[in-house]
Batch of 4 targets.
Target 1
Amino acid sequence: MASLHDIPDDGSRAGRPVAPRSINYKRRGEIFRWLHRGVIFAGSLAIMLVVLMPVAWLVSSSLQTEAEIVSVPPHWIPDEPTLRNFKAIFAADEGPVSYETRNRQDPASGSFIPSTAKNLLPAMFNSFAVATLVVVLNLLVGLPAAYAMAKIRFWGRTGSVYFILATRVIPDIALVVPFFLVIRNLGLLDSILSLVVTYLAITVPFTVFILIQYFESLPDELDKAARVDGCSRLQTLTHVYLPLSLPSIVAVILFAFLTSWNEFLLALMFTQTVSSQTLPIVLASFTSDFTISFSFINAAGLLAIVPPVIIAIVFERYIVSGLTAGAVKG
Amino acid sequence: MSNTAGGIGAKVMRRFTYDDRTALVFIAPVMAVLALVAVFPIGYSFYISLFQIKLTRPNRTPFVWLDNYIQLFGDDLFWTAVLRTVTFTVMSVTAITVLALLAALLLNEKFPGRRLVSTILLVPWAIPYVADALMWKWIYDSGYGALNGLLYQLGFIDKYVVWLGDQQKTLPLIANAFVWKEVPLATILLLVSLKSIPQDLYNAARVDGAPLLQRFLHVTLPSMRTGFMLVILYETMIAIRHFDLFFVLTEGGPGTASHVLSWEIYIETFRNLSFGSGAAMSYVLALVTFALAYFVIKILGRSV
């Protein structure tokens, strides 16, 4: 290495006409470029493997029969892939599971698909309903507020922005006890309404913050022009800014939806039966039951993973720009 | 000058411009919602923490001033839980920051397939924590899990090992599942920071003859200071209150090896049904979060 430093840097780099002495640089550049490519390839491969291998194992496990899933060492790729777990989830209830019938699905072993498998679809529906309501409410209260804080110079503007920032960091676990007591007194336990209301606390501050950032990046002249043309503030928002801020609105929809879809702690406290349980709750109830086949648990897990992963892949651009805006302004 | 209430009201209204009033109407819904679901519960939580509320004795809820806090601070179990939370947090946040820096440096380069890698990296961010937990629980499984299978087939172990059930290994393994899911977000935050470094700085360093490592140490890292601060503070806030993984992976076990603060709060509140002391504990956690958040807000506030 020391010899490389001995060569005085004469400012010549790749692409420039160089003196004969600089052939060294050319070779160094070549070596460096290959090294660079190698590091990038290795890094990319490492990321892909670390991310995809656990997920691939989940998918593979969900397709295995009971005999395969308990093999030692594990079958990385199932010999006889089966859809029995997914059939149990999606097919209509096939009668009560009793001691006599519980092994019927896979006579080769003592596999157990729980009778609660039929709760997965209603739970998915609950998750979807809660998430959708949370998204709609977020947009309804978030859009006007963000517009006002970004574009109207009003008394108390800075104060309200800091207020939003402060509410964004309230830990959910500190809300659990007071929420529980209030919701119990209101008789809203075991209702998806209690989830919709409490999820607002963890989504609205982020929504407003992202929208403020986006509105601020749009020129003030639009605002002035619309106002001169006789638009009211509300019309300026709906006719001028809304169409322009679609990317950030998409990001907000995605974040509010995914946060609600994934939330666990509050749902654990406020839901009790199938009528309000969301997908993470039903999933977690499987994992603590040792009689349930792991291949079934993996199939249920796959069900919970597929919608958010599809969303993340399809809307990658919006998500990254939203997270970026929500964190730091470049 | 009119002294009637209406007159004063009108005068006050005139001091507010049309813009002031519109803005008030626009922000009123958000303020109302947040007052109801965020500010009120936080205040109410402190109020509850001053009482001895046991749901097993619903009719006797004496006001006990700060007794819940005093008892808490004198309780060895509480401090052990704090220590475990700190251990988990330090392990996780260190790993997250280092790995995210590496991933961000990679994604800052231009190469074919960059989009694919960054999209794939977003997958852990998107999936629910409960699914993350059940996936790793199955990987760590001592009887049939993939980790044992892989290490066995590669010859690193000659018989299957107990993973989550081993008190020494529990916290690092839970931290691993946590890091897996948190690195993507941290990477995006650091990437923003990396991209905002002015190219001039690199050019200047190059003209000065600074080699790659020097440029990294003296240009890249110092310029990312804000980004690092943000990632470390933000991830610390998430880690000290994390609950989901502990619930699914170990339920605080084996023994009390993963009794972190959030698990302690859950047990105290919903198994012991002692709401007063549970609220006190969660309030302590909230205060720590707020202290961290103060710095985050100062960083974020700069961009408003």
Target 2
Amino acid sequence: MKISSRNIGFGIMLLLGLILAFSPVDKMNISKVADRELLLSQLHSQSNYIEAEDVAHWIIDKEPGVLIVDIRPAGDYMKYHIPGAINIPLEKLLEKSSLELMDPSATLVLTSNGNTKASQAWLLLKEKGYDDVYVLHGGMNHWVEAFSAPRKPVEPYTDDEVFRYQFRLAAGPVMMGTARAAQSTREAPVKPRTIKRKRRSVKKKVDEGC
Amino acid sequence: MAPFFKYGFFTEQTGLIIALILGVSFGFWLERAGFGYSRKLALQFYFKDMTVLNVMFTAIVVAMLGLLLFSLFGWLDITKIYINPTYLWAQLIGGLILGVGFAIGGYCPGTSVVGAVTGHVDAYFFLGGAMFGMFVFGEMFPSLEGLYNWGAMGDVRLSDVFNISSGVVALAVVILAILFFLGGEWLENKFGKEGL
């Protein structure tokens, strides 16, 4: 008897379906080991970092769903913090009251003085199941330097460097408060905001579809 | 370990190039299957040519079996695969509107691009209409927001909703597909397969 290719196709489909129906497909998911590998590779490729300019853009654009979490001690936070940031010192990071402040669906930006502590917090939060967490690259040290006294690019410079410098100059007063605004008068008139709009690559997951 | 992109095997730029290659080949094979031709696509709605149904259901079944088997073998972490969020009622209404447009215009959004590229004038009209519809939707969005979010269920899969294992869902979908294939064939015979 000749079997048509159609029936062979149906047979294979049914067979594979039957295999799946009786196999523990769902138990294969969510292996912690693989997650750790993923985290490690993200740490290694530094894709957990977000640049100060991008965070500044988010603040200026009032990007919804972004939460800046300052993990320095409360005293440092009181002296200066990024506009809109909340303070959760690193040692209190995993307390229930702290976790309640951080919406799991929000985009979290962790800031400390440098990179190290924020990266440690990043790892902890990622393991806790927070999906969208970033570390402010360079931390507060870089942030303050970038926005209170942006360094003028020296020749030869690229357009990108000029744009970044102008953006830092323009965003400085907003990011640093009055201290920066008072001293900005002696500088050359602030150029019109040449904010180069870049769609962030680290945006939340985009819709995919037909 | 897949998905390769999420594990950082290639960068976003490489990903875009791969997406371009996949997209172009998708369009190419749609054209080769005759999906750049509105009359062939519209025959679907008169039960005279069920190619669209067969192709779509085959694609669904192949992708589903592949993903689940790969995950079973431990080659793929299926939790890292992007899932379109479900908005039950919004998607039902949207699907109905899309279906009506499909039956009238003879294209769906993807195939209209294929048709336009191969120079079918009706596809350009269809594309223009789709763009206009997007514009109107965008402008009306504030008043449509309730509808847009109607029945939001998040990133769920059938196995989550019915609380059964995804393997059983897979078998059910396979059986459903076979029934649809056989039913389609029966309908084609009943309403007469029309040559183009």
Target 3
Amino acid sequence: MKQNFLLQLHPLTKFYFSLFILVAVLIVPGYIFSFAVFPILVLIAILAGVTKEFLSIVLKALLSVLVIVFIMQMFFYPGDEVLWKAGIFSITQEGLDYGLLLTSRILAIGAVFILFFRMTEVRDFVKSLEDKGLPPMGAYVVLSTLQIIPEMRRQANTIMEAQKTRGVETEGSLFVRAKAFIPTLTPLILSSIASTEERAITLESRAFSAPVKKTSLHQLTKNSADRILPIVYVVILVGLLVWRFFL
Amino acid sequence: MKRNFKDDFNMMAMLLIPIAVAVNLVGFQLANVLRLPIFLDTIGTILVGVIAGPWVALLAGLITNLINAIFNPVYLPYALTSMAIGVGAGLLSKYGFFKKIPKTIVSGIIITFIAVIVSAPITVLVFGGATGNTSSLITATFLASGQQLWSAVFSSTFITEIADKVVSVLIVYFIVQKMSDRYLSKMNYGYLYMKRNNKK
């Protein structure tokens, strides 16, 4: 099966793209550019074949934040040019502009990072950082964290069921529910830290902390696009900076 | 006892980080399931600070927020808050603040101040004052009653954080009390909480 070109890019190329958008959005004044970034990101998501997950996470994560940020600025940002007034609430032109600016930036920056993680396996990203000089221990910590989280969620549910069987109440008044928290969390933490010793022994038995160069089964390749694109980003950013501050 | 910066990052401490991050996330999820009005999403970070020191906790806080940011980028700027909480908890532990309940509560209040001082400017500068959680409603109420933006955000953050952090440090205190000497002896700051030979 032929892999998608965009998905095949080196993780760092995609990461630099996110940073590029972040800086570009902060350089260019006004909200029109930042709002224009979003359709471009959607287009990239369609080309990469991740549209559905991308849009659903944008909706879930960003929509409520954007609405609330916008409403807050519209009503409470100080300004003189009043557009609409009812009682203590008033909408000013300045508030409207600032609300649009802020929401456009949050949308563009938030969406580009969501897109990055939909297009990149965390494993590949961490490997690329390791190639750049992240210590192998750091890479191991990040990856094993991702593995441990679902495992501990399951374990937390098991412990809670077990405690319910013993008679710990999880329904009722606030105080009763709060009391169920500690009997669930304590066994979870104590059993998890007991397992770190086994992990340490396993890692050490493979000479993990030996001061030698590590070999990896997982390799990343760079193609010509991965060499050209970062240069393109830098050129565009320098162009934007010159345009913003010197013209 | 003089301690080298690098000594903090031994293997047992590093292996504690994934656990801490998972405890942060699971704590938050449990608080949701039990419909508690507080987040309890920094228990892991504080725990690492207490037994493994400030720098390991800084890393745990950072990784927690990076992993949360994979699904919700709003968490990304607040990585600074998590890191500051971790460092704060670690330093407090170094000076023996987690040995007895009264001092633990004091350290909870100190950590609240750290959290507020770091997170309120992020809320104002990055999100203009509200991010859509419970404290946004309080902020809006303060603003509508005529307060300035900065003081409104500071006070609403303080109100939502104080209960959360004090309960979190108490939970950490009880969990550390239950840890075995055998495990604590392997952690950098564990000797402070061992039940035997508590002299060093």
Target 4
Amino acid sequence: MRVAVIRFPGSNCDLDMMAALRMIKGVEPDLVWHEDVSLGREDYGAVILPGGFAFADRLRAGAIAANSPAMATVKRLADRGLPVLGVCNGFQILVESGLLPGALLRNSTLKFVCKWTHVRVENTRTPFTSGLREGQVLSMPIAHGEGRFFLPHAELAQLERDGLVAFRYCDASGRPTLSSNPTGTLHNIAGVCNKAGNVVGLMPHPERAVEALLSPLGHPDGAVVLSSILVKSGGRRA
Amino acid sequence: MNAEQLGLGLTAQEIAFVRKSLGREPNETEWSIIDAEWSEHSSYKSSRGLLKLFPTTGKRVVLGPGYDAGVVDVGDGYVVTLHIESHNHPSAVDPYGGASTGIGGVLRDILSVASRPIALVDILRFGLIEKSGHSRWLLKNVVRGIADYGNCVGVPTVAGEIEFDDSFERNCLVDVACVGLGRKEDLILGEAKAPGDVLVLIGGSTGRDGIKGATFASKNLKEDAASERSSVQVPDPFMKKLLLDSILEIIANRGDVRGMKDLGGGGLSTALSEVASKGGTGVDVELKRVRLREDDMSPTEIMISESQERMLLVLPPGTDGGKGVISVLEKYGVPHSVIGKVTSTPKLVLRWDGRVVADLPASLVTDAPLIDWPYSKPASPRVAPRPAARRDEPSLDDALLALLSSPNIASKRWVYQQYDHEVGVRTVVKPGQADAAVLRLPNGRFLAIKGDGNSRHAALDPYAGAAGCVAEACRNVVAVGAEPIALVDHLQSGDPSDPGVYWAFRENLRGMADYCKAFGLPVVGGKVSFYNEDSATGRAIKPSPIALVVGLVSAEANIRTMGFKREGDSVVVVGETMLEMAGSELSSRFPKSVSLPSQSPRVDAGQDLKTCQAVLHLIQKGLVDAVHDCSSGGLGVALAEMAISGALGAKVDLSLAPSTCRRTLETAFSESHGRFVVSGRDAAAITSSLRDARVPHAVVGKVGGSSLSLSAGRSPVATVGVSSMRSKWEGAIPELMD
């Protein structure tokens, strides 16, 4: 499967994502410059928005990239059901562009935080979680200053009822505790999906957790997330 | 205007020298160029002669000092590049902007030799954050500045060191080092060798920020230092990221870049004169072609502006000069303009609308006359002998917990969690896990990195203290399983015209140089920073030599971290503890518990080399699972950190450790060099290997339980729970800062 990794000016996890995807047998990643118009024409099986500081996060994290021509194409592809994943800044861009609900606010500590976290898989009906078990605990690192997921109370309740929370921060045993919440994010939310399930955003970095060597626990959990795109069953695929 | 009216930083002798060599009175622009380039910051005129003492060659050294970065061969065609910078004065007046632009500068140095920056290390010095709100403000904003810049450009900050001492209250030190990775065949130097080549200025526009920054850094801080904020440059990490990505793409595309130079201190003056002087050529530049942020800038301002995010490329002439270089710059939206050309006359010719506004020999600009400052050893204050006051002696548990919560020793997690230390997917050993960071290299080897200094030791004994920084950095790299391969240094002190300050500087340099020679460690680059004192109080910082050492780990199996790994493992102390309490953390926290006069740690490079080799041998044989160096806080703190990190206690008899100290408190907290604590399953094999290596050592106890129990023979002297040690160690800095 060919996968497009979009590089905006200021993306900085694009090459890490490319390296991670290359390790997955059956995935052929392409690094696509944001002005490259071929994005809409090529036969991609998925689009990934990597982390970083696209357009320096000026205005708000993800705000400028969300209004770029590249994102207009991504929206069109997403509407057709193409799997779209946003990681960290990519998640922020998806939220800013309206492809995912909510907002990602400044961390409650008011500081950037880089650390390894545990997240629990909440929804396995997306193309990026179809290879996982519900309740499975993954170890992946976060690195961001604006990752506090926010929605007004009623909408958050609806999001939960619709089962659109994809990942939740938790402790090693899978409990979403206060102390395992690194950013003050509501309901310990680390990742969400859209109603159709084909668009997923998460703050932790799966591409930094694809090798046992780099994971403090020795678990290459990020590889399972990324290789889900190859899993045929479970995902609501167009 | 003549030189005397311009308010230059030049001395009367220097002014006379310029007039004599030139045979005429330079104009204002020319004086300003010489002033910037002859500043201490750019010219190293007070240190250049002495820096020759450093050993700078070795089998792995590709490029030593004198270029933008040192270059070391790490095998299979790959090179690691190293550079260290400080931004002390700017950070003292504008901690956020000063620290950010410090990162920006050091990244450009790594980039300008055509290597990819892969890691940042920051070594910071502040006043006492327990007492001073000003120091807390500096720490908070320096860390935020480093984080915002480093995180944005996507270069991980993987290691560092922080020390707190009253002498840094007004002059904080912000040292940032960068490590790059490249291919040997891709290296580009900061030279313009071929007349006819064109000079292209790329990146940010030139503004009035950072005017005279190099001159500002070359004098003492004034009382109203805040008024010098205009000497601090404006950071733009986004432009830096575009510069970085475009230059790396140009290198990957094999663009024909003939020379590359970053614009740092001294701005265009420095960059132009150095590419010409290094290449044995001259340059002819039209300053009207420089893109300006403010229209009405004068030629002088353009030449000495230190606006950030600018680089100078030397490209072959012609429309497609450099084989697609320009199209890559345009893809990334990096502004560029051809400002002039390389000539065969070794002169710096600058024009304004065609009219020559400066015409100087390039070598006159780059080769400031050396200054040989007078120096003399200051009289040491007489210390009245005094025995340790037994009544005031803390219990060992109290002392241990107090040291663990001292900001100097406490966990720096509050700091490093604000840095992205994972981006680039190379960070194998992460901050807090071990004595040094370990990054993977593309050839299956691993690079260990650590920067160290100890200003208290360096103030007490400038020679041994500076050598000790190298010793400690080497031990830290060895503790993760790496063989030290290269060093960059940073020497920082007060006003060199003070004979006592200059004497200490010379001793620092000699101490480091001698140690490196004996250890066989080449110095591939470095930096000198004087004038770290303020005229308000007349106080200089403690001399603060810094050593940044990189090492190579041959295989993944040889990487070690510090935490205890298994119940029942034997704990072994390697190296001898001596009565060296002066400058120790214990003596700073409990001054009366130390008898006077007391000795500060001495160094023995020959013995250290033996010890380091013996420890590396233990690692490579697979005999030890946890390795930790012994430095600040001595054996006691080293054992506590191994327990905290491994979440496992230990029972240790301190009287068994090789030690010349009489009191247990001294054995526990003396800061002698040349020591490690290791743990492993097979005590007999470990001791036999160390015996063969003729390194003093002893099995002192066993790993196990949930507390650290220390005894002296049969009498227990301290039992502290691992969780209570952890909460002190991890909680100390957040409690002060949040």
